[in-house]
Amino acid sequence: MSFEFPPVIILAGGIATRLGAISELIPKAMMRVAEAPFIDHQLRLLAEQGVTQVVLSVAHLGQQIEDFVGTGSRYGISVVYAYDGPVRLGTGGAIKAALSTVPDQFAVLYGDTYLDIEYKPVFDAYIKSRQAALMTVLKNENSWDRSNVLFENGIIKLYDKRNPTADMHHIDYGLSIMNKSCFDDFPENQPFDLSEVFERRIQSGQMAGFEVHKRFFEIGTPTALAETEQYLQNRKVN
Fold this sequence. Notes:
This protein has a single domain, classed as Spore Coat Polysaccharide Biosynthesis Protein SpsA, Chain A (Alpha-Beta Complex), CATH 3.90.550. It has six helices and 13 strands. The chain has a seven-stranded mixed sheet with strand order 5-4-1-6-11-8-12, sandwiched between helices. A hairpin with a 2-residue loop joins β9 and β10. α3 crosses α5. The model has no long low-confidence stretch (mean pLDDT 90).
């Protein structure tokens, strides 16, 4: 594939609190799904989509992920690691701490989601938008999680994952492209959430939107894990 997607920061430092006791032993990224750790499926998909550089932002039992993935050479991807320090930094703080490992334009992906879409149109839309950030969204109608984005006529008008409103029919799909400047107003080594970065970009009119039409899969709950297992098994067969 001649197309090369920008470097991707994967947020893989979360604790799988909704998965019970097993999360005390292994990080979510190392949960076995369809006969392999989840991170294995993620990296193989990214390689298919032209990704050649990944930064794994890790914290909880992150050494297990590094021991398994290594340099990423078996995926054809260069993988480096950014560890949370003694203070957990949240999704936004973890990205801020990893900015030295990526160029000005980079992508962000959650470490517990499998997004089986074409990535090139997302990057093309970001470049065309000339905005500081782009969020992918899916018309969700509260189907797989609570809808949290007001998206109309190609524009993200409002995003609020804490207090979503009834007129929100879309959801943050989980793949974003950003410029480092999005984090200029946030402190170093202090915890904050990525949603705060998104909200500021939207308020300042610097957040493009790109609608996708294929559902996401994730491993945050036992039910979601079972659905993802089935999807990945079917994908391997086909």
